[in-house]
Amino acid sequence: MAGRYISPYEEKRLKNMEENRRILESLGLVGPDSVKPKRVVKKKAPLKRKKTIRVHTPAKKVILTDGLVDEQVDTDQDGFTPTRRSARLRGKAAPSLQDLRTEVDEELEAERDTRYKPVPKDRPNVFGEIPGFPVGTWFETRMESCRAGVHRPTVAGIHGNDYEGCYSLVLSGGYEDDLDYGECFTYTGEGGRDLKGTKANPKNLRTAPQSKDQTLTRGNLALSVSVETRRPVRVMRGYKLDSAFAPEEGYRYDGLYSVDKFWFTAGLSGFGVYKFVLSRCPDQAPPPWTLPASGDNSDSDTDTNKADSDSGVSMTTGTETEAD
Q1: In a structure prediction context, what are the per-residue pLDDT tens digits for the chain, which is 324 residues long?
Q2: Contact (Cβ atoms closer than 8 angstroms) between residue 103 and residue 53
Q3: What is the pLDDT of residues 99-142, one digit of tens each?
Q4: Torsion over CA: 86, 91, 97, 102 (sign)
Q5: What is the gyration radius of the CA atoms in the chain, in angstroms?
Q6: Which of helix, strand or coil describes residue 137?
Q7: Helices then strands, each counted (H, E), the chain
Q8: Cα–Cα distance for residue pair 57/45, rounded to 1 Å
Q9: How far does the chain reach from its first CA to its final CA, in angstroms?
Q10: What share of the chain is helix, strand, coil (3-state, %, to 5)?
Q11: HSE on the CB side for 277, CA within 13 Å?
Q12: Which of 88, 100, 25, 27 is nearest to 57 (CA)?
């Protein structure tokens, strides 16, 4: 009986993943029997639509005073008080015009609080946890994490420089041969893509296929410096990450990690890439997830074998959120 056909791409991916695993095992970060947790896709909660308020303007009645036309708002409408038509509110009086206007004013004021706020200028770059944003803090967008200072770039995945090292990075999307065990993971560096696009599609293609070797510059150089300095790196995981530890929505701060090793190897495209190993630092708040039960590697959507990637602290409310 013929075996299952494996494409050259899949064969290369599995080979790279095995190489990554051997390196993690050589560093003592995973055991020989460790199994990569499988992601469980949960149903997303229905989107909460904004309530639309329609304000009814009462009809105007014309009053003739000494031959002049005087328009006044008919507030009582001849003493008639409208009632609700829905079964749930049937028989109850409709809110007054003033009540509706007050409700609209309150919603407009609430929207003003959520409008764009400029990012503070000349903020110093810092290592370690940002006060007020503990492990598990959830951000709806990258801009929110930028304002908080947890991860400042709104597009780039690595924040750092060539003399101090890496301050923070985001796991989002990534490469298909990377491994994520929660407490440790492999990370493929940046670069090697044609960001100018083509004549047919000239936009900035940050997801374009790799077309050249990566270089040890910019974010890659910053991560390599962190191997020497051993300074902690803030790590966030995004909803695009194909991992059991990724949040279902938005971005979540998962704590401090150290960069333990880096090397240069051939990527899935055949071009050279830089790989990095990061492991979670000790003596900090526990991670915002629950590991699957020992020996249970099935894909069933049960509470005992799924990574609780939605627990944590809400950026909006600052309160702890419960797991689904």
Answers
A1: 456 788 888 888 898 989 999 999 888 888 877 777 765 544 444 444 444 444 445 555 555 555 555 555 454 444 555 555 555 556 667 777 887 788 777 777 766 655 556 777 778 899 999 999 999 999 999 999 999 999 999 989 999 999 999 999 999 887 888 999 999 999 999 988 776 666 666 655 555 677 889 999 999 999 999 999 999 999 999 999 989 999 999 999 999 999 999 999 998 888 999 999 999 999 999 999 876 555 444 443 333 333 333 434 444 434 444 433
A2: yes
A3: 778 877 777 776 665 555 677 777 889 999 999 999 999 999 99
A4: negative
A5: 28
A6: strand
A7: 4, 11
A8: 36
A9: 44
A10: 15, 25, 60
A11: 18
A12: 100
Smallest CA-to-CA distance from 279 within 230, 238, 211 is with 230
Cβ-contact 235, 278 below 8 angstroms: yes
Q: How many CB atoms lie within 10 A of CB 314?
A: 15
C-beta separation of 166 from 233 below 8 A: yes
Give alpha helix (H) positions in the chain. 8-26, 97-113, 142-148, 218-229
Residue matched to tokens 């206007």: 101
For 168, phi then psi, to 5°, come to: -160, 160
Q: Which two tokens stand for residue 135?
A: 């492990």
Quick check: 183 and 26 in contact, CB under 8 A?
no
| Phi, psi of 98, deg, nearest 5 | -65, -40
Residue with structure tokens 């809400």?
314
